[in-house]
């Protein structure tokens, strides 16, 4: 099936677009007129962490450019198989320290994560959860009810974060029932959703999803994940407009990635594209040292200089906070920008 045929078959139907996602490096290289040999043992890398790229995201990549910043985020490459000191399977200590019961991750005061879905619409090669045991955290209906009971008994949780994988992989009806149940938690004030789906498949922002997320008395924050301005096209802008139309606050978190967005121009372009879509750039994460992603690392001092330069070019609200996750720490650690002399 050609990319054009996939696109024609799936217009407007996010689940069909999901099913038609490209899952092999050879297919992805062919769709972009690239030589698969350029990426080394991509089949071996995809065996370690599966490749998944939906067509709407593919459509924003440049044909014939192996260094396209969107392609680089998702193409399995042989370099992932090289061992790197300090890079491991649980880089932020979620499995070892912060997974108190299936489906729940608890790292910081006042907040908890509920792992709603164990997969994503796109598989990002740098993902800190690329080795997370989603299978052990997949929730049956009864386990989900038990997780909600556990949350109700925790005294200090005022914010619940729907995460995954990508929580918006769950269907609209399931999400509506889940948000209904969360709405009944006595202390909950804020529902936060961490998702990349409105970026990779904008048609995911359906009327049913908007109804599910829109609840009186519960503030909803949706944290998108885009790393490069080329990810934000008209369809993504439309999805963001629909979300904002329901009073949902939109923020973005990006990861600083070598070869993707590690220049002041790329970061400025991302901030501009986000702002055009009504989204504030909130966090710029340093790479978590997950096995297979060492080639994306940017040294701290360079990251600080990049954010310092960005601060000279953009207003403060378009300069994200540069942060790192430290296993076991009570909060993210912020790194100060290094301003040009
Ligand atoms: S969408 Fe997020 S959770 Fe999913 S693979 Fe990408 S970075 Fe990881």
From TrEMBL:
Gene3D superfamilies cross-referenced by the UniProt entry: Aldolase class I
Keyword Cytoplasm: no
Record-annotated Radical SAM core domain positions: 106-321
InterPro entries: Aldolase_TIM, EpmB, Lys_aminomutase/Glu_NH3_mut, rSAM, rSAM_sf
One Pfam family it belongs to: Radical_SAM
Binding site residues for [4Fe-4S] cluster: 120, 124, 127
GO molecular function: 4 iron, 4 sulfur cluster binding; isomerase activity; metal ion binding
Keyword set, alphabetical order: 4Fe-4S, Iron, Iron-sulfur, Isomerase, Metal-binding, Pyridoxal phosphate, S-adenosyl-L-methionine
Listed cofactors: [4Fe-4S] cluster; pyridoxal 5'-phosphate
Transmembrane segments: none
Highest rank taxon of the organism: Bacteria
PROSITE patterns in the cross-refs: RADICAL_SAM
PANTHER family per UniProt: L-LYSINE 2,3-AMINOMUTASE, LYSINE 2,3-AMINOMUTASE-RELATED
Record protein name field: L-lysine 2,3-aminomutase
Organism: Pseudohaliea rubra DSM 19751
